[in-house]
Structures are given as structure tokens and as C-alpha cells.
TrEMBL record:
CDD domains: TIM. Involved in the gluconeogenesis. Catalyzes stereospecifically the conversion of dihydroxyacetone phosphate (DHAP) to D-glyceraldehyde-3-phosphate (G3P). The active site is at H96, E168. NCBIfam families: tim. The gene is tpiA. This is Triosephosphate isomerase. Homodimer.
């Protein structure tokens, strides 16, 4: 069985103090759970160092929300993987729908970041997902295929060991409108089959596919108990331990 990953994407939220307290509360509240599930928190860049210190000695992992693929140079406002490694990030969220649709990142941009993230030995959490209009026009699978093909171009089967896929239907992000467990399962099953045809049954079986989009304590267990859902990428509900810890616990429950 694939080990569940419950990841929190804090986006551009919290102060340093709030983030540090939140990280400590998550680490304390998940100390038993991390024996069974992986827990990852992704704070804003400036807080990576204090958050990493706040969870030191625990199994909570810390990741970034984006990166640049170049090591250094004249890239104002960007952050390299070397810098992220230096401050203790072990994962990077890539291709999040806000990066795609607010900041105009293309599949080719995302692919460069995925390749460099893997080369540097960090885990890449590659987000894919369709817009509402695409879903309404029956284009979900076409969009997912395009984003998988583009994002994973030149990624070897061996390197896939450090890739996590996150299916996030854009219409479900921050809207309170969650995909039904059946909708999530259908997309995840499609992604698993894509991995099998592009790589192998082994890669498809081993790769974790997270669901993201309005995951809350009251729907986490139903979503996580779908056969092809291997965890959650949580936005709003990862901003309080009162909401995030029960989602982690739901992961523990469905794992046992
Ligand atoms: O990365 C997380 C997703 O964008 C989901 O956000 P949300 O849980 O606030 O809908």
C-alpha cells in the first residue's frame, strides 16, 4: 500500500509568529500519526527557516511552494533549488493552478522546474487539474493528459520515485465546492492509468496521487478512502491545527 501524504499549502498566509505556532501545533499533534502517514507543510519562502526550526526533531517535513530552475543569476524575485535546499526544504509544489492561471506558467516552465527539482534530489509535487469550463465541456481527461505529458517530459522512470502528483480541479480550490469522492476517484484512476501507459505498472503503483480542492475535516475520510487517492494537498484547512490535524488523522484511519 502507498503511504499517505497529507500536505499543507499555506499559500501567502500567516505571519512568522502565526506560522511558527501553527507548525509547532501540527508537529505536536501529529507525533503519533507520522509513524503511519507523511506530513508536509509548505509555508511562504521567508518562513522556511523558522518553520524548519519549529519542527526540528519531528517527522514533519517542510517544503516550498515554487522554485526557479536556474541555480543563481539575474532573476529578480526568484528562489533557486540550491537556496531551498540550504534552508531545509525537502519538497517543492510545482504547477499549482495559481502558478498556472494567475502567474501564467506553462507546462514547459513547470517541466524545467520538475526536472531541476528531481536533479537536486528534492521531491516534486506536480499539480494538475482542469478549469470549470473544461470540466463542463468534458475535457478533464484531455487537460490532465496534456499537463502530465508536459510536466513530466524527460522525467525517467527512476526519477518518478521522487514525484508526487496532486489532482486539483481548479473549480474546487478555495471555493468550498469539493469534487465528490467518485469524481476524484475517476480522475485519479485516469492519472494512474496514464502513469502505467507512459511508464510501467510498477511506477503507476508506486506513485502517490493526492487530491486537493476544499479538503476539510468533514470530507477528508471519504476522499482518502478512494482506492486511487493517496493523500491530500490542503489549502485553507491547513492554516489551523484544529482543521489540519483531523485531516491527518483521517489519513491514519484509512491507512489502518
Ligand atoms: O494547494 C492547495 C489547493 O489549492 C487547495 O486549496 P483549498 O484547500 O483552500 O481549496
Amino acid at each position: 500500500m502507498r503511504r499517505y501524504l497529507i500536505a499543507g499549502n499555506w499559500k501567502m498566509n500567516t505571519t512568522r509568529e502565526e506560522g511558527t505556532e501553527l507548525a509547532k501545533a501540527i508537529a505536536a499533534g501529529s507525533s503519533n500519526a507520522t509513524a503511519t502517514v507523511d506530513v508536509l507543510i509548505c509555508p511562504p519562502f521567508p518562513y522556511l527557516i523558522p518553520i524548519n526550526e519549529a519542527v526540528a526533531g519531528t517527522k514533519v517535513q517542510v517544503g516550498a511552494q515554487n522554485c526557479h530552475f536556474e541555480a543563481s543569476g539575474a532573476f529578480t524575485g526568484e528562489t533557486s533549488l540550491e537556496m531551498l535546499t540550504d534552508v531545509g526544504a525537502s519538497s517543492v509544489i510545482l504547477g499549482h493552478s495559481e502558478r498556472r492561471h494567475v502567474f501564467g506558467e506553462t507546462d514547459a516552465d513547470i517541466n524545467q522546474k520538475v526536472l531541476k527539482t528531481l536533479e537536486k534530489g528534492l521531491q516534486a509535487v506536480l499539480c494538475v487539474g482542469e478549469l470549470l469550463e473544461e470540466e463542463e465541456n468534458g475535457l478533464t481527461k484531455t487537460v490532465l493528459d496534456r499537463q502530465m505529458e508536459g510536466g513530466l517530459k524527460d522525467v525517467s522512470a527512476e526519477a518518478m520515485a521522487n514525484v508526487v502528483i496532486a489532482y486539483e480541479p481548479v473549480w474546487a480550490i478555495g471555493t468550498g465546492k469539493t469534487a465528490t469522492p467518485e469524481q476524484a476517484e475517476s480522475a485519479h484512476d485516469h492519472l494512474r492509468k496514464w502513469l502505467e501507459s507512459r511508464y510501467s505498472a510498477d511506477v503507476a503503483n508506486a506513485t502517490r496521487i493526492l487530491y486537493g480542492g476544499s479538503v476539510k475535516p468533514n470530507n477528508a475520510e471519504d476522499l482518502l478512502s478512494q482506492p486511487n487517492v493517496d493523500g491530500a494537498l490542503v489549502g485553507g484547512a491547513s492554516l489551523t491545527s484544529e482543521n489540519f490535524l483531523p485531516i491527518i488523522e483521517a489519513g491514519v484511519k484509512v491507512s489502518s
